[in-house]
Amino acid sequence: MALSPHVPELGALELLLAVARLGSVGRAAAELGVSQPAASARIKGMERQIGVALLERSPRGSRPTEAGRLVVEWARQVVEAAQALDAGIDALRGRRDARLRVVASLTVAEYLMPGWLLALHGASPGTAVTLRTANSHDVAAQVLAGEADLGFVEGTSTPPGLSGAVVAADRLVVVVSPEHRWARRRTPVTGAELAATPLVLREVGSGTREVLEEALAPYGGPAAPRLELASSTALKAAAMTGADPVCLSELAVTEELATRRLVAVPLAGVELQRPLRAVWPAGQRPAGPARQLLGLTRAPAPTPPGPPPHTPAPAPARPPRKN
């Protein structure tokens, strides 16, 4: 028996359940890794398909209408049944799917992936993982070609042809050696100054390069680089030799900044925040170990134990004054 044309697809039902649970289309969209306009359009399309209004919208958020509450309850049963079916299929496919091919940008592979893979090994010790590194452009190409089950990219948006979810936030910094003239500046470097200065940069196609170029677009874009290098390690080495300023992830220079082997340059008028995303082919859902790893990237990282709080020693008693 064919399904009625009034029955929405599973993804739309999951979105409706998320809105009902979170009270906001925007929050539901963020949780599912889609834009708010796309989520709103999907809800409106579902309302047209079903033929009733599902949500009451207000400045304080969205909540189901009376008819929407009924649809939410029915949708929950459908989604739970689909999840049970998915779990059963996973169990049947377990032997074949106990491997995971991951390709990640250098920043993610070097500074975030080890912890995620360690957590995956703890949760599923039988999963065989293959990890390759590439710049963000090549990560997207490999995922689209079916050469990887899950990719991780840096950049300002999800690459075309892929779906994605933000898994972490990162910030780019401009660093120099302590001997560089910018290390002694008392005023921030402006966007115009940074754009006019030849830098040591990652190669074209890297997420780091893309974010910097977009940030400096209002100033005419960055000057031609003094040097292009293909890894954070090479960039740091170039900066420590006293070469031109280097732009790279803050994650990559934590130790060097703490030990003053490199100095972060204050900037004014330049926004260098960027999201780090997991990506997979549009229209598909990560399954098996890929879905498990994606869930682990969203789990809060454990807080490492720190030193006990410092308790200042009591001040010595003052001797009595002699009259």
Automatic annotation (TrEMBL):
Chain intervals with Pro residues compositional bias: 301-323
Signal sequence annotation: none
Keyword Transcription regulation part of the UniProt annotation: yes
Stretch list, region Disordered: 282-323
GO molecular function: DNA-binding transcription factor activity; transcription cis-regulatory region binding
Keyword annotations from UniProtKB, A to Z: DNA-binding, Transcription, Transcription regulation
Chain ranges of the HTH lysR-type domain: 8-65
InterPro entries: LysR_HTH_N, LysR_subst-bd, WH-like_DNA-bd_sf, WH_DNA-bd_sf
Family: Belongs to the LysR transcriptional regulatory family.
Matches recorded under PANTHER family: HTH-TYPE TRANSCRIPTIONAL REGULATOR, HTH-TYPE TRANSCRIPTIONAL REGULATOR CYSL
Name of this protein: Putative LysR family transcriptional regulator
Source organism (scientific name): Kitasatospora setae (strain ATCC 33774 / DSM 43861 / JCM 3304 / KCC A-0304 / NBRC 14216 / KM-6054) (Streptomyces setae)
